[in-house]
Amino acid sequence: MAAFSKRVHASDDTRRVGNKTITRRRILVVAAVCLATLALLAFILVDLDRYRPQLISYLEDITGRNVQIAHLTVSFFPRVSIRLDDVRVKNLPPFPPNDIVKLNRLDAEVDLWALLHQQLVIKSLMVEDPEIELLSDAAGHWNFENPKTMNSTSIVPQGPTGKIVIDRGQLIVSNLLPSNARGPMFLEAHDVSSELSNLNLAAIVNPASSSVNGQGTWKAGRFRIGRFEATNVNSHVRMESRGVFFMEARADAYGGKATGNVSVSLATSNATFRVDARMSGISMTRLLAEFPNARGRMTGTLEGDLTLAGDMAHTTRPLAGTHGSGHLKVTNGQVPPLMLNANLMKLMHFNDLGPAKEHPSSFSSISTDFELANLRISSRTIDIDGYGLDVDGSGDVSVSGSDALNYRGVATVTTEQGFFTNLFARVEGATVTNGKLSFPFRLEGTIEHPKFSR
Description:
Layout: H1 2-46, H2 52-63, E1 67-75, E2 81-90, E3 99-110, H3 112-116, E4 122-128, E5 131-136, E6 161-176, E7 182-199, H4 201-205, E8 214-225, E9 228-240, E10 243-253, E11 256-265, E12 272-283, H5 284-288, E13 301-311, E14 322-334, H6 342-348, E15 362-373, E16 376-385, E17 389-398, E18 405-413, H7 419-427, E19 431-433, E20 436-445, E21 450-453
Parallel strand pairs: 4-6, 5-6
Antiparallel strand pairs: 1-2, 2-3, 3-4, 3-5, 6-7, 7-8, 8-9, 9-10, 10-11, 11-12, 12-13, 13-14, 14-15, 15-16, 16-17, 17-18, 18-20, 19-20, 20-21
């Protein structure tokens, strides 16, 4: 039995030695395969810049435009990513010979195994300092369009990209006038940072797609639509084919705050937009400074709500093609140009209360509805509470360039006057009701040269 036991132990020891030998061989084989794979990857990918012409050709097929890439490299740690430096995509005639897209750096994290099988699957993108300028000509064509690929996405990476991070971006959207001269900027955003998930690049290129192709967060140091500007903008964003929606946006504007939703669509020949906003604490002085003919025409603090919508017409008039409505209230301000009007000064002689004594054009509040259409802003109900003066009126003003005024109403001195004051006021055309003077009036002329009459 002792001899048999020794033979069994000897056999076990032999098997253990054999298993260890096999394990070592397997480890060596796996290590050799890994080294060979890494060597193959290094041979194929490390000198990736030699494949730059092929990548440029690939991107030119997608865009239909001339593409420039200064340098192309690959990194394996902490993940496999391809880096592109100084990328530019050029315009084609009739557009100016500028860049549609220019960016300092793009890092694309790719799926390694898909890449080895000659498939491009992008897991994430990091874009630094992108500058994008979108232009539309008078026929409604956009500078990014490529008719050869409008109905095909076979050369575009399929499926959603996991994440896209944009840092220090800039976006400008504008028109060419019928003369092919550059028109006013319709939309611009500066110092943009954004993080998007599930962005489907193929759906963005394909105008027939209507699915939600990406969503996330969006910030801009400065954002402008037409003449209206906001700073420190924060919002949720959703991207669709040829459209973007900024939701629950918050921003600083002209010394106050603004909140709301903004959408922009490039699906038609003219870009269209819609703004639903709520404002408070807006400085009228700073807001009117955006309009050369209205600068210095009113002071005070603005609050209210508005809806604006329309298209980006191929014209130098920023409000052409825009319509909207809303309610506005301005408090504690003045209308300085009216101080110089002799007729208004004569009316103010009957009111010497509060700031109106030295500043007849001052008011405590102006409340009005408004409707913008056909380059005119009209109001059905205007209520002006001055200091001892109440005004009810209606009318409209042109925003086509003539700045013509057409308002009428009734001004009432809210304090009772004495017998002789009422007598002289009647001579001046006033009516007296319960001891209070009322004057019908008209406001015509232009914003720059208003004419007040009774």
